[in-house]
């Protein structure tokens, strides 16, 4: 795995290119919206998180907000699209606070699931965050979502007794 960038400091950090064995995690750009709308256009992806697939225009508007960054200078919004070969297959994200904590999430399009891509992306993200100086990483996983629990476990997180909005809090302390 290769990382490009400088270590985490108290100032905001920015997403940087991350490569894994099969994936390139590309920092999110507004221009990714059209392709990602097609990748994420399956209601089944929303079974555990709610909502419905976004239109390309709605996703573009969302990506504009994400790329602009958090209005709080102590919080960094870090978002990537996952590229396998020449195609986009999903996303990962991290919200990093000044307390050196990151909350992460992932989604892989239905057509690309069951191949370990989400686990590989989450592992790459967690490794990169630790290299940046993040010390605590958390994710929230619906208790009935065994595939997402497997991704969290593969990334080194362990379930806690804590829940938030009906989801189990998974945690890794460096």
What this model shows, in words?
It contains four helices and nine strands; from the N terminus they run βββααβββαβαββ. The chain is globular and about 35 Å long. The protein has helices spanning 33-39, 56-68, 117-131, 146-154; strands spanning 2-3, 18-19, 23-27, 75-84, 87-97, 101-108, 136-141, 158-164, 167-173. The protein has one domain: 3-Layer(aba) Sandwich (Aminopeptidase), CATH 3.40.630. It is α+β, with helices and mostly antiparallel strands and 174 residues long. The chain has a nine-stranded mixed beta sheet, sandwiched between helices. The protein starts with a strand and ends with a strand. The longest helix has 15 residues, at 117-131. Helix 3 links the parallel strand 6 and strand 7.
Q: Which fold name fills CATH's third level, the topology?
A: Aminopeptidase
Structural class: alpha+beta
- How far apart lie the N and C ends? 19 Å
The main pleated sheet reads as: 9 strands, mixed
Shape descriptor reads globular
Low-confidence stretches: 1-10
Q: How many E strands?
A: 9
State Rg: 15 Å
Helix content: 25-40%
* Count of separate structural domains: 1
Could you report the average pLDDT, rounded to the nearest whole number? Answer: 92
The CATH architecture is 3-Layer(aba) Sandwich
- The number of helices is 4
| CATH class label | Alpha Beta
CATH homologous superfamily title = Gcn5-related N-acetyltransferase (GNAT)
């Amino acid at each position: 795995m290769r990382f490009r960038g400088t270590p985490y400091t108290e100032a905001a950090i920015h997403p940087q290119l991350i490569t894994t064995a099969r994936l390139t995690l590309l920092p999110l750009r507004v221009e990714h919206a059209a392709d990602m709308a097609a990748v994420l256009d399956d209601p089944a992806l929303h079974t555990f998180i709610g909502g419905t697939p976004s239109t390309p225009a709605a996703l573009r508007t969302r990506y504009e907000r994400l790329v602009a960054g958090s209005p709080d200078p102590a919080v960094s919004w870090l978002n990537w699209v996952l590229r396998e070969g020449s195609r986009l297959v999903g996303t990962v994200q991290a919200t990093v606070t000044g307390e050196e904590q990151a909350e992460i999430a992932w989604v892989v399009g239905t057509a690309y699931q069951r191949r370990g891509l989400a686990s590989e992306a989450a592992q790459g993200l967690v490794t990169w965050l630790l290299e940046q100086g993040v010390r605590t990483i958390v994710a929230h996983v619906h208790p009935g979502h065994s595939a997402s629990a497997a991704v969290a476990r593969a990334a080194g997180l362990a379930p806690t007794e804590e829940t938030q909005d009906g989801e189990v809090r998974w945690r890794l302390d460096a």
